[in-house]
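Lab notebook, design round three. We kept the backbone fixed and only want residue identities now. Task for the bench partner: fill in a sequence for the structure below.
Input structure tokens:
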């Protein structure tokens, strides 16, 4: 008689809840250190007396670029072992399109990411709110919701460059292009058939990818390239008095939806581009090598007979 093996109850951590916690914490870390670097550049250095003006030359932008890059690295190392560290609805969407993630998990992942981004931004606010208030006082900003409040709002969420003159077309294209590059890089970096980095260096290389985007395509819209990274903090700023700077945001018809729609469109485009230009060739070569090896084995067996 066969012995029936009894297993203990499966804990909730063995379900998708464990992955959602990972996405939440990873995105929290991403925003805490990414938005934290912007807070240092915008209000921290000046209001602490450590420098006189913000964004003198390109130094401030490089500080922010490296801040977000390192934030990505740390966040991916935190969450990567559990959920793969998407930390970005655009990445989750891309993985679902590729069949690497069940579609039923997409919305829960998005919710966890937005909540994590909200929480990370709230940590930055709790640490820098006195500097924010001091900045507004020194620069005679009437309220956070006024046009002058856009400067401190930029610590947490994004807005379009003035050269777009309020149009949504340019900012949307900017987000599509920048996010397409991000997803393209992530697909290449994580593809074992391609030149995937070894020794667990993947998160570091992804951080460099974000840095490359920031210093090459960042000034048009602040390179949100992540709907959760923008929407979660935007919601927080709206609740804390930044008013119309958060919702609907600058521009014709409001800007708030562009960092959501643009990255999702860019992700879908990147998946198609990577498949057509790279993945199909890698698959063909892998199959050709496998077929050649099988033929050599079969030939060797015939010869030995």
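Proposed sequence:
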């Amino acid at each position: 008689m066969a012995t029936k093996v009894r297993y203990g109850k499966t804990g909730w951590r063995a379900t998708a809840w464990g992955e959602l916690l990972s996405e939440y914490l990873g995105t929290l870390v991403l925003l805490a250190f990414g938005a934290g670097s912007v807070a240092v550049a915008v209000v921290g250095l000046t209001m602490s007396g450590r420098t006189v003006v913000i964004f003198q030359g390109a130094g401030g932008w490089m500080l922010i670029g490296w801040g977000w890059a390192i934030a990505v690295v740390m966040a991916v190392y935190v969450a990567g072992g559990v959920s793969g560290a998407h930390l970005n609805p655009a990445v989750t969407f891309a993985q679902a399109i590729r069949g690497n993630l069940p579609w039923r998990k997409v919305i829960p992942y998005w919710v966890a990411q937005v909540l994590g981004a909200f929480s990370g931004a709230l940590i930055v606010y709790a640490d820098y709110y006195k500097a924010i208030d001091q900045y507004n006082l020194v620069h005679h900003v009437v309220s956070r919701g006024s046009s002058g409040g856009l400067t401190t709002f930029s610590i947490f969420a994004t807005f379009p460059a003035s050269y777009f003159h309020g149009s949504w077309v340019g900012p949307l294209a900017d987000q599509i292009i920048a996010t397409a590059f991000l997803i393209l890089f992530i697909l290449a970096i994580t593809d074992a058939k391609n030149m995937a980095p070894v020794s667990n260096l993947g998160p570091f290389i992804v951080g460099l990818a974000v840095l490359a985007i920031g210093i090459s395509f960042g000034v048009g819209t602040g390179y949100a390239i992540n709907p959760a990274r923008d929407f979660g903090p935007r919601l927080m700023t709206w609740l804390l008095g930044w008013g119309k700077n958060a919702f609907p945001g600058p521009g014709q018809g409001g800007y708030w939806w562009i960092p959501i729609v643009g990255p999702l469109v860019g992700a879908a485009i990147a998946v198609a581009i990577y498949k057509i230009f790279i993945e199909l060739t890698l698959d063909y070569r892998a199959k050709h090598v496998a077929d050649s090896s099988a033929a050599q084995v079969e030939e060797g067996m015939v010869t030995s007979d």
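Keep this in mind before ordering anything: Residues 1-5 have pLDDT under 50 and may be disordered.
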